[in-house]
Amino acid sequence: MKIVSSSRFTGERAWQALDIADFDGTSVRLHWTDQPYKWHINDGQEVFAVLQGCVEMFYREAGEEKSAMLEVGDIFYASVGTEHVAHPRGEARVLVIEKAGSF
Questions:
Q1: pTM
Q2: Dihedrals φ, ψ of 6, to 5°?
């Protein structure tokens, strides 16, 4: 049993994570950040849910760069092969569900 107060979690560095669960190779992690990540493609699916703050998610579709502003409660789903990068607007906390070990 575990209770996590996401609003109290703060990392010492951007994208620091608190491991919450692992379901047969699928990780559930709480991330704290105040800096952009890096362009990447996960080796599986990813669910990215904004719990606190605001995140602009950039992604590429058919070679064209697009973005979506994600507010609290919004969810971004990256299917296999979706190139993307998250840019928080200030401090943000996000829940990420993805293949364990994925970046």
A1: 0.93
A2: -60, -35
Euclidean distance between CA atoms 24 and 32, whole angstroms = 24
Backbone CA torsion sign across 15, 95, 49, 41: positive
Gap between the Cα atoms of 54 and 2, Å rounded: 26
Query: To which H or E segment does residue 57 belong?
Result: strand 55-61
User: What distance in Å separates the CA atoms of residue 75 and residue 88, rounded to the nearest whole number?
Assistant: 14
Q: Which two tokens stand for residue 39?
A: 């362009």
DSSP label of 78 = E
pLDDT tens-place string over residues 18-68: 999 999 999 999 999 999 999 999 889 999 999 999 999 999 999 999 999
